Amino acid sequence: MSTAQYEYILTARPEPGVALITLNRPKALNALSTPLFLELGKALGEADADAEVGAIVLTGSEKAFAAGADIKEMKDKEFSDVYKNNFLENWQTALTTIRKPIIAAVSGYALGGGCELALMCDIILASPTAKFGQPEIALGVIPGGGGSQRLTRAIGKSRAMELVLTGKQITAQQAESWGMVSRVVGEGEGEVVKEAVAMAKEIAVKGQIAVQAGKEAVNAAHELNLAEGLRFERRIFHGLFATKDQKEGMAAFAEKRKPNFTHS
């Protein structure tokens, strides 16, 4: 994954099986724009299609994961334009169509579109410096990239309503206690990225088919009622018995050795 082809993001392979994507608009605090999301979608698609990649880490800078959407891009848009061209829809599909797990490593501001971007990821790790919020109400609008929906599913109606209607920010510690993030990592520059890469490496050594199936099953819990979700989970579980990785994983356990997954 070369960095030369991108203007607004950086890509790297910090560990075997791990793709790292870094938002790179430092002067704008990584403000999200359509050109950035087009690049992000391309990089994520490449990582998703790469057989060597098992998990993806998405991060920003120490100061800002992403401080929001680019207001300069939006301020003069008219209803007919945003409605006809389905503005922000491509922002959603950039992440939500990716089958491999995406871990958000959040430091500093994750506000508006930045908070929504983190919520689109599968796992969120937060630095103690992280601040989350949906401040769109102060601009005369509401979240448009899934904030009101994913936030409500993550933290409940009352808390989501408070954030959306007041525009207030919450700390990483509050976000953890509310169940919005997996955990707050230790202090120190770059620590959250190190933790996220370590987690991604741990996931990447697992069988990719089972990992993707696990992501699909957990995501289905948001869409299906309990009976349908349990049926869906069971069918995927049954289907994994057709894979070589299931045979290898269970044989390795019985033989008390490490499995050698071939992702097949």
From TrEMBL:
Pfam families: ECH_1. InterPro entries: ClpP/crotonase-like_dom_sf, Enoyl-CoA_hyd/isom_CS, Enoyl-CoA_hydra/iso, Enoyl-CoA_hydra_C. Belongs to the enoyl-CoA hydratase/isomerase family. GO terms for cellular component: mitochondrion. Its EC number is 4.2.1.17. The keyword Lipid metabolism applies. It comes from the Eukaryota. The keyword Lipid metabolism applies. One of its GO terms (biological process) is fatty acid beta-oxidation. This is Probable enoyl-CoA hydratase, mitochondrial. It is an enzyme of class 4 (lyase). Keywords: Fatty acid metabolism, Lipid metabolism, Lyase. GO terms for molecular function: enoyl-CoA hydratase activity.
